[in-house]
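Treating backbone geometry as a discrete language has practical consequences that deserve illustration. Part of our work consisted of pairing the sequence of a single chain with a tokenised description of its backbone. What the numbers capture is local backbone geometry rather than side-chain detail. For completeness, the protein is quoted in full, as a sequence line and a line of structure tokens:
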Amino acid sequence: MTIVFFGNTKYSIIGLKIVNATYPISLVVTIPGSPVQTLAQQLNIDVLKTKILDQKVIQKIKGIKTDFFIVEDYGLILPKELLNLPKIAPLNIHHSLLPKYRGPSPAPSAILNGERNSGVSIIRIIEQVDAGPILGQLHYELTPEQTTDSLLTKLNELGGALVISVIKQYLDGLVKPLIQDESRVTFTKRLTKEDGYFDINNPPAPEILDRMIRAYYPWPGVWTRFRQGSSGQAKIVKFLPGGMMQMEGKKAVKFEVFLRGYPGFPIKT
């Protein structure tokens, strides 16, 4: 059996390790210099390094004659010509319980919205993004301290195990695709650095700020600008998980320590 794996981030390597231990990966497609490239080379897996999925890349993948694609934290949309290549199925590991939270930021969106439960879905990839039939799902209960970093780590562990189960179901002829209910679809957006900013003179409520800090860690981060004294220069202040604060140019410290150094800081709790 032949599998081509698409992934770019440190979270992608979680699924790559898990799947490769059961079903050896034949080719990894990733951007140059990614953590996925590093791991694939350590595992002696062939690597196709590319920032775009153009005809040259498509022709190289076509030569593999693959049975499955597995896409995990890849970030690029696979064109139709690519989707038609696997003999069995192109599969995507998506970090939500679809049809909720389609799009590029399901994990931070769940935390930001105060969800108590999240999960991972394996879908067959179609042209419409994240709209393919559901082949498997696992639920996960969020902890009060859950950050996007810890959530993505957990969901990729679950997703790696689940995609192995889905592949086995395909091979045994037992897969049962579930068409997504379009009436229940919600969408997420691509995050920018500005999503983590708030005006120091109009801060969010403490509960919302806590969600932001956890949802936007490690990126884009939560930050504001603070001017110490009427004539001081405004500097960036970062809010970090675990009650940590970091003034621009300084090391991160506990919130109470930060307040002792900047008693004029308007947020006290």
Summary: The mean pLDDT is 97. The two ends are 56 Å apart (CA to CA). The longest strand covers residues 117-124. Residues 19 and 164 are 6 Å apart (CA to CA).
